[in-house]
Automatic annotation (TrEMBL):
UniProt xrefs under SUPFAM superfamilies: S-adenosyl-L-methionine-dependent methyltransferases (SSF53335)
Organism of provenance: Arthrobacter globiformis (strain ATCC 8010 / DSM 20124 / JCM 1332 / NBRC 12137 / NCIMB 8907 / NRRL B-2979 / 168)
Keywords, sorted A to Z: Methyltransferase, Transferase
NCBIfam families cross-referenced by the UniProt entry: 16S rRNA (guanine(966)-N(2))-methyltransferase RsmD
Keyword Transferase applies: yes
Name of the featured protein: Methyltransferase
GO molecular function: methyltransferase activity
GO BP field: rRNA methylation
Length: 201
């Protein structure tokens, strides 16, 4: 069973998605991911975007750890309903609407954002069948919507190629966890995350 690892709702069980194309992030990978984000000090007061959200576990975890606002984007009907259940849970714990669910295709959501929305952290955990050109296109649409110092985390199969980073977005780290690899990127002009990574290593 998936759970919120830490923060205001730490230990709280989450609703899970079954019978869909979504692939949940394991608790081991989630703990490692958020340990690194905590080291970067990017979550407190952040605006977070969780694309291909699945159950919304990464976005909900971010809210529990102090993110100000979280957008969960999921097109699958069953998964979107689970996202809403988990959003209602964390919003209830926090006593405010920190997490909003958008039932939408990722590309359409980013097209509608059209320069008005900026995020500090973005998660992308697309289904493995999504090919690299399609992922690169999504990253290109995302790049203009990131604040300076933002962190982008892409979760892929460890056997998949490195994502194609668009102009304005560059990789600064990656880490393999069994069959999963996390890729970390930032806006090209950002320096804060690089310094945090050097300090951690």
């Amino acid at each position: 069973m998936s759970r919120i690892v830490a923060g205001a709702a730490g230990g709280t069980p989450l609703a899970n998605v079954s019978g869909s194309l979504t692939r949940p992030t394991t608790d081991r990978v989630k703990e490692a991911l958020f340990s690194r984000l905590d080291a970067f000090n990017v979550l407190g007061g952040a605006r977070v975007l969780d694309l291909y959200a699945g159950s919304g576990a990464l976005g909900v975890e971010s809210a529990s750890r102090g993110a100000e606002a979280v957008d969960l984007v999921e097109f699958d009907a069953k998964a979107s309903a689970v996202c809403q259940r988990n959003a209602d849970l964390i919003n209830g714990v926090l006593g405010r609407k920190a997490v909003t669910v958008h039932r939408s295709k990722v590309e359409s959501f980013l097209d509608r954002a059209a320069g008005e929305a900026k995020w500090d952290v973005a998660f992308l955990d697309p289904p493995y069948p999504l090919d690299e050109p399609a992922l690169a296109s999504v990253l290109e649409k995302l790049a203009p919507h990131l604040n300076d110092g933002a962190v982008v985390v892409v979760e892929r199969s460890s056997r998949a190629a490195e994502p194609g980073w668009p102009e304005g977005l560059e990789r600064f780290a990656d880490k393999k966890y069994g069959e999963t690899r996390l890729w970390y990127a930032e806006p090209s002009s950002g320096q804060d995350v690089d310094l945090a990574l050097e300090a951690e290593d």
